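User: Can you help me understand a structure? I only have the sequence.
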Amino acid sequence: LSAYRGFFGSRPFSHTNTLLTQQGLDPIDWSR
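Assistant: Let's start by predicting it. Here is the structure, written out as tokens:
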């Protein structure tokens, strides 16, 4: 997970959800 966060920067989750919502998709619930 550290490599994933390092690659995407400090806010990978919110950035991913932004991309998803821009595509008309549902954002991911990362708390599960």
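Now, to help you interpret it: Residues 12 and 21 are 14 Å apart (CA to CA). DSSP finds two helices and no strands in the chain. Let me know which part you'd like to focus on.
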